[in-house]
Design goal:
alpha/beta; 8-stranded parallel barrel; 10 strands; 375 residues; TIM Barrel; binds ligand G3I; 15% strand
């Protein structure tokens, strides 16, 4: 991050410190959300660039004491429409959500997201078609033969990708297929275990047939830098491209924690995938921090968080193949983080009342000041 930006983040964080924070409230009254259309992240994006968020719903939200955020929280929808020009389905296009029973597709919420995006001039990232997690029990415990499983996956991809043909900018076709050692998940991924690694190439081919224009991605976490896992993707994609498999993109999720350092080599890593002829994207950014339940982050934590967000975005903006930067939710009250990591939290860019954290301003500054040849 540029020194000026660090100074800005620290100053904003300091200005937001204790005097404004009610000790009884977990949502301090900070700078309110902007009123005018121009006062928004999407108003600052360079040409051809997308700033996105996951759309809250399904998954962990179903166990929380609030109604479905996307369909019932109007202030949330207003911010979603105003700030972003790209949206991702957080859970609403995953197998366990879309396919509650064999032969049954629950398309309503995903349709609503796609329609909302169209009304608000936003693109959509589809997430996800082949994953080891969030698969319904009828599928994983159904005792299907290999031939049946292959047909189930092919039908799913044809049906889902086909339904949204022409409406999805990027599909996360295959999600998290390697572990952190760069070993293919050939046990916990039902598709790879039962059908062999070749099923991954089939998934890309079926997706291309169903929507020739959607860009088809591999997506994973802990692949921001050059490491065993991103090396495994690099080798696999090289191999698939040589076989003519339609892979268009490689994306890194970007779930970061202040407990760990900022991942090194981000731009070098993105660039090597670009040299293979791929697009790249950052798809699920959040930056969590140590936080006791009900506690408020310190100004230092907020400044550090802003710096991490900004460095991720700057990394993407500085690599011409990286055209899309998505955060995994924009408001703390709906974040998956405290549900999965009970001693961490405050991972998003807005307080519960949608007022803006230093991280919001850091992202906006980066978009505004982007000397990346895109404007
Ligand atoms: O499946 C069980 C169900 O059997 C059980 O009855 C229910 C009761 O708690 O829990 C169900 O699992 C939930 C699952 O969503 C269902 O869809 C989990 O508790 C819940 O934590 C889970 O949350 C989602 C998570 O993916 C699942 O891995 C989050 O909402 C979602 O934000 C998160 O998103 C993922 C991306 O898709 C991929 N990258 C990582 C990212 C963060 O984990």
């Amino acid at each position: 991050m540029k020194p000026l930006r660090i100074a800005t983040a620290v100053l904003v964080a300091a200005a937001m410190a204790t005097p404004l924070v009610s000790s009884a409230s977990a949502t301090p009254q900070h700078q309110p959300p902007g009123q005018s259309k121009k006062d928004a992240l999407r108003a600052e994006v360079p040409k051809g660039f997308f700033i996105g968020t996951a759309v809250a719903g399904g998954g962990h939200h179903e166990d929380q004491p609030y109604p479905d955020p996307f369909s019932s929280d109007q202030p949330y929808r207003n911010v979603l429409a105003k700030e972003f020009n790209s949206v991702s389905a957080e859970n609403q296009m995953k197998w366990d959500f879309l396919r509650p029973e064999p032969g049954v597709y629950r398309f309503g919420p995903a349709d609503d997201i796609v329609a909302f995006a169209k009304r608000n001039n936003q693109v959509v990232r589809g997430h996800t078609l082949l994953w080891h997690s969030q698969n319904p029990a009828w599928l994983t415990e159904g005792g299907y033969t290999k031939a049946q499983l292959k047909q189930i996956l092919r039908d799913h991809i044809r049906t889902v990708v086909g339904r949204y043909k022409g409406k999805i900018q990027q599909w996360d076709v295959a999600n998290e297929i390697f572990d952190d050692q760069g070993v293919l998940r050939s046990q916990d991924n039902i598709w790879i275990r039962e059908l062999g690694p070749g099923i991954v190439a089939d998934a890309f081919r079926w997706a291309r047939q169903a929507d020739p224009k959607a860009k088809l991605y591999f997506n994973d976490y802990n692949v921001e830098g050059i490491n065993a896992k991103s090396n495994a993707y690099y080798a696999l994609i090289q191999d698939l491209l040589a076989q003519g498999v339609p892979v268009d993109g490689f994306s890194t999720q970007g779930h970061l924690s202040l407990r760990y350092g900022f991942p090194g080599d981000l731009t070098d890593n993105l660039r090597r995938f670009a040299r293979l002829g791929l697009e790249t994207a950052i798809t699920e950014v959040d930056v969590r921090m140590d936080l006791a339940p009900g506690a408020t982050p310190t100004p230092e934590q907020l400044a550090k968080q802003a710096e991490y967000y900004q460095r991720m975005l700057d990394g993407c903006l500085s690599v011409s193949s990286c055209n899309s930067f998505t955060i995994w939710g924009f408001v703390d009250k709906y974040s998956w983080v405290p549900v999965f990591f009970p001693s961490e939290g405050a991972a998003t860019i807005m307080w519960d009342d949608f007022s803006r954290k230093p991280a919001y301003h850091a992202l906006r500054d980066s978009l505004k000041d982007c000397y990346c040849g895109r404007k």
